Every structure is written in C-alpha cells, then in structure tokens.
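Honest question from a wet-lab person: if I give you the sequences of every part of a complex, can you actually get the arrangement of the whole thing, not just the pieces? Trying it with mine:
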Amino acid sequence: MIVKIDEDLCIACGICEQICPKAFAMNESNDLALVIAYEEELEYIDCVEEAANSCPVAAIIIEI
Ligand code: SF4
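Yes, you can. This is the full assembly:
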C-alpha cells in the first residue's frame, strides 16, 4: 500500500499523527506530516484509513 501526503494541502494540524502514530508523524519543523511506516507495513496498520478520512483537507492519499 502506498500512502502519500499532499504537501500543498497539508495544514500541519497533527490529526493524522494523533490518530495513527505508527504511520504518521510531524516533521522536525512541525509544518508537514510525514509517512513514517514502510509500504509493506502500512496495510497492516488499521488506523491509516481512519487518519486519511479524518484529515480536514484530504491531504492523505492512499493508493492500494
Ligand atoms: S491530518 Fe492532514 S492536514 Fe493534518 S497533519 Fe495530517 S496530513 Fe496534514
């Protein structure tokens, strides 16, 4: 599973990290979310889709 963050859309609200810290984290300057899990791991982390659905600007793109 490929998960990407649309850098132009992300408003750095931190919701994805709160919902799914195994898959997402804020970068060092706290202005962009990063995908921190490997592609092979992502499909086993069950909060990825919930985080994507909770992103207020739909910046999390899931490609199955
Ligand atoms: S929930 Fe969306 S807008 Fe908020 S930090 Fe994550 S990717 Fe960015």
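Two things worth pointing out. Residues 48-54 form the longest helix (7 residues). The chain has one domain: 2-63.
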